[in-house]
Design brief:
With 549 residues, this protein is α/β, with parallel strands linked by helices. The protein is 35% helix and 16% strand. It is built from 20 helices and 20 strands. Strand 2, helix 2 and strand 3 form a beta-alpha-beta unit. The relative contact order is 0.10.
Length: 549
């Protein structure tokens, strides 16, 4: 513990360094100029990434948290800056990702007058963040920052918001700088493990559902030992595919929007669900139909790091509040007689392999073949990102993840996430291939961040599936109000010219067979790259056309 007299802004930056921060994402603002100045002195320790929109900065911070397990840091100014950044806070909340949003605030003497861009952030972010606070005393800066780290990483990880009055930031701070905060770890009770073992031994059709955040490579390796030793089929939850090797013989597929019907039936028919980390959200449960609340027809064992999530929606036969790594470590030693479900894991994996065979489309670039090509050729540690839209269904279905933390996809269904997430991923892992898959509507929501990629030499590859519509909404519209198109048509720019204007390699891929050489050229360009893929709006989802609806 060191005690020196510095400004509160300098104290804040010292605290971030003590926590091991390596990057921060921002849009600059006059309300926190003192912090920007303090960061100038530590450019060799914390890399500050200047973004073009606060939503992009917040999404980059969220992606950083996903990839590292430590809170991603975002700095924005008051009022419009904070409101723009709210989307990233919401995404981090629903994704259970550690993140800290720092907001420059009006001077303390001007509060409660509706001063310029004044907002009460406790009210604004009260239901979005895990904790919202305003640092009024410069001598307590370290206390607030350290608590922000602890809250963001503890239990169910999530976002924290700290408001920083601009006058406070320039005042002297004599408070200490503490050491690195690590998240609290909890382990399952021995009696709970014994009860789990008995429930598993007495089941006939068990199924593991794997999700959540806060895992480590070691924890997932122990989970795999447990699955293999007991010949259990395992499915991943919505947008958590990279938690388990998709080519593993026990992998049954993922549960999300439009899941494999055979997997959906397997969930319904299971007599025991072992759920690790997932909240069992609306998307994972197909609108709470595969697993019905409050008391599901399947016996439910629910393991989650936050006790407040257990029993919140579903009533399990066994609740285990435990850190996921610790629970997996305890389960790795369990062995039961698996004769009752012998061969089910292999059958589930065969169903999954059938499901990922590319489908035929009658017009436009076939995204199924594009994703299959990426699956065959990308390095196994490549990171793929996406925002929201029907285009993502092709990625999730036809691309197989082999390694942990190779998927960045918002469970909040946030459009515009994929591009900033890809930039953050390439900044964190410059040695790895990073591909963003976006729809035309999705891409334009964050297109300005191509300037960020170009400015910092972040050589990501963006694939734009261009069908000229807001595809997901058009799909629902065609089903609910057939023949009455309203509000879902898009007039798009020339994406090749747009990409080139940012200094990117840019090309249009008119035919499926032209994708492979175009992608190779994008990689070889050694620049950020944009590939436009004209796809059919009629083929709105894998194996489905608008007329089918």
């Amino acid at each position: 513990m060191a005690e020196t007299i510095r400004t509160a802004a300098q104290q804040l930056v010292d605290c971030l360094i003590a926590q091991g921060a390596t990057h921060a994402f921002c849009v600059p603002g006059e309300s926190y100029l003192a912090v920007l100045d303090a960061l100038h002195d530590v450019q060799d320790r914390i890399r500050l990434i200047t973004c073009r929109h606060e939503a992009g900065a917040a999404n980059m911070a969220s992606a950083y948290g996903s990839l590292t397990g430590r809170p991603g840091l975002c700095f924005v100014t008051r009022g419009p800056g904070a409101t723009h950044a709210a989307i990233g806070v919401h995404t981090a909340r629903q994704d259970s990702i550690p993140m800290i949003l720092f907001i420059g605030q009006v001077a303390r003497q001007d509060r409660d007058r509706e001063a310029f861009q004044e907002v009460d952030y406790r009210q604004m972010f009260g239901t979005l963040a895990k904790w919202v606070a305003e640092v009024d005393d410069p001598n307590r800066m370290a206390e607030y920052v350290d608590r922000a780290y602890a809250v963001a990483m503890s239990g169910r990880p999530g976002p924290v918001v700290l408001a920083l009055p601009e006058d406070m930031l320039v005042e002297p701070s004599t408070g200490p700088t503490f050491g690195r905060v690590e998240p609290a770890v909890s382990a399952p009770a021995l009696s709970s493990i014994e009860q789990l073992k008995a429930l598993l031994a007495g089941s006939m059709r068990p199924l593991v559902l794997l999700g959540g955040s806060g895992w480590s490579e070691e924890g997932l390796a122990n989970l795999r030992i447990f699955v293999e030793a007991n010949d259990l089929p395992v499915a991943t939850t919505f947008r958590r595919k990279s938690l388990f090797d998709n080519t593993h013989p026990n992998y049954a597929g993922d549960l999300g929007i439009g899941p494999n019907p055979r997997l959906a039936e397997r969930v319904k028919d299971a007599d025991l669900l072992l759920v690790f980390g997932s909240r069992l959200s609306e998307m994972t449960t197909s609108g709470y139909t595969l697993i019905q609340p409050p008391v599901p027809q399947q016996r439910l064992i629910h393991i989650h790091p936050d006790a407040n999530e257990l029993g919140k929606v579903y009533q399990p036969v066994l609740s285990i509040a435990s850190s996921l790594d610790e629970a997996a470590h305890a389960l790795a030693a369990i062995r039961v007689d698996a004769a009752a479900w012998a061969g089910e894991a292999a059958r589930a994996h065969a169903d999954y392999q059938d499901w990922i065979r590319p489908v035929v489309v009658g017009e436009g670039v076939n995204l199924a073949e594009v994703m299959a090509h990426l699956d065959r050729t990308l390095p196994h540690d490549a990171i793929l990102t996406n925002g929201a839209g029907n285009f993502a269904a092709w990625l999730h279905r036809f691309y197989q993840h082999r390694r942990y933390r190779t998927q960045l996809a918002p469970t909040s269904g946030a459009m515009g996430y994929g591009l900033p997430a890809a930039i953050a991923a390439k900044i964190v892992h410059p040695e790895r291939t990073v591909v963003c898959v976006a729809g035309d509507g999705d891409f334009v929501m964050s297109v300005q961040e191509l300037a960020t990629a170009a400015q910092y030499g972040v050589n990501i590859i963006v694939l734009i599936a261009n069908n000229g519509v807001y595809g997901t909404i058009r799909m629902h519209q065609s089903r609910e109000y057939p023949g009455r198109v309203s509000g879902t048509v898009l007039a798009n720019p020339d994406f090749v010219a747009l990409g080139a204007s940012f200094g990117c390699f840019a090309a249009k891929v008119e035919r499926t067979e032209d994708f492979a050489p175009a992608f190779e050229a994008a990689v070889a360009s050694n620049r950020p790259a944009v590939l436009e893929l004209p796809v059919s709006a009629r083929h709105i989802a894998p194996g489905k056309t608008l007329s089918d609806l």
